Amino acid sequence: MVSHFERVSYFYPMNTAYFEKKNYKPKLKELPSKDLGICVVIPSYKEENLNIALSALSKCILPKCNVEVLVVVNHPQDSPEGIVEISQETLQLVENFNRNNRNEKIEYFAVKAFDLPKKHAGVGLARQIGMDEAAFRLLKINSPLGIIACFDADSTCDTNYLTELEKLWEKNPKTNACSIRYAHPLSGSNYNPTIYKGIAEYELHLRYYNQASRYIGFPFAYHTVGSSMACSASAYVKFGGMNRHQAGEDFYFLQKIIPHGNFLELNSTCIIPSPRPSDRVPFGTGRAMSKHLDNNEPFTTYQLESFLELKTFFSLIEPFYNTTTVNDINTLISQLPQTIKTFLLQNNATNAILSVKKNSASLKAYRKRFFLWFDAFALLKYMNFSNENTYKRQPVIQEAEKLLTKMNLEIPKENDAFSLLKLYRSLDEKTYQFTF
Fold first, then answer.
1. Does residue 8 surpass a pLDDT of 60?
2. Which of 29, 102, 126, 184 is deepest in the core (most CB within 10 A)?
3. pLDDT tens digits, residue range 203-214?
4. Are the C-beta atoms of residues 250 and 225 closer than 8 Å to each other?
């Protein structure tokens, strides 16, 4: 019997370890084109507006390579009849859309993922199913630099989305992954003014967090938005694939890749995510918007002082490198502000810092290893610790203005979320490359 790894003559040998470990079997019967270069993966659960995303992709300028759009139609076990009906209708929608819009350069496929285990069902598992399929198809035609792009069923995009992805990897073939510029809609007739105001504050929170992280010298400060990221097929399997988190899957996935370098920002195109409220994930944009509308309160974010304590901590990296004993490290930690000092002591930082030193032959190597220890997960853990114990969350407009003052930037005269967000978007579009 011919295995899944030896199906057609133009398939090439590949490292099958990732797929064999999972006992992976392809979901699609259709064979990929030998010219396939981009797979766009869209999770679709209880989604009644998928046609908007598909239409946006169909209007894109087509790249030189072939494109596949993989819609992962999913729902958990024991879903209500209404949910199952939506899934069945979505399968038919994708089939009809492909029939009416496919051409020799782009095709649309529905990947059926019904009755997922309740324990794991969610956007993470759905992305994993689609990205596994995409990686399998790209690697089997010897396209390790083939692109796996993540998209959402309620997003749209600029018409140069596909061509700019292709250009990025053509110019930078060593790229493991990238984040893509995104911008929620801030006006229009599709939503009421309350939603537009709310999404402006929520996006401001995301960008404030990113810019504050850069301000304090954190090297891995990049946006990790599920609808606005892409990776190469080879990097996908190299770094262990997508996780099954029911929310935050994008953050966990990219933070496995970012610390290893060859991560870029694609700012020459734009994804437009939806600002709509949603109950489909436990946290994230949709849930945040639902909570905001229910409470009718301004969005809050981490106080700037929390970040500034970390800035003080990071300023001790070279002194830490020059220490030789536990007592020396503890002396340096004792000089830190109270909240970060308590956090470090509770998390056994002294031994971790000493271990980093023992495995570093130079200050540059030490800095890199230091941030492999105090990574984006540690930063977020500290921010939540700080919020729970010292610095309570404050209105995002207030904290965003404080950061601008620290950066010696002028605060917009309008003094509202829309004006601040416009400025923060421009800051995020500046190329960020941290050198150790």
1. no
2. 126
3. 999 999 999 999
4. yes
Q: What is the pLDDT of residues 42-82, one digit of tens each?
A: 999 999 889 999 999 999 999 999 999 999 999 999 999 99
pTM over 0.85: yes
Distances (CA, A) of 87 to 276, 280, 303: 20, 14, 42
CA–CA distance, 19 with 39 (Å, rounded to integer): 18
Residues facing residue 201 across a β-bridge? none
Which run of H or of E encompasses 392? none
**Domain 19-280 CATH assignment equals 3.30.70.260:** no
156-157 and 229-232 strand pairing = unpaired
Q: Residue 158: what are its φ and ψ, rounded to 5°? A: -65, 155
Q: Can you spell out the DSSP letters for 37-80? A: EEEEEEEESS-S-HHHHHHHHHTSPP-SSEEEEEEEEEEETT--
Of how many residues is the chain composed? 436
CA max distance for the chain: 71
Q: Is 284 left (phi over 0), alpha (psi -120 to 50) or beta?
A: left
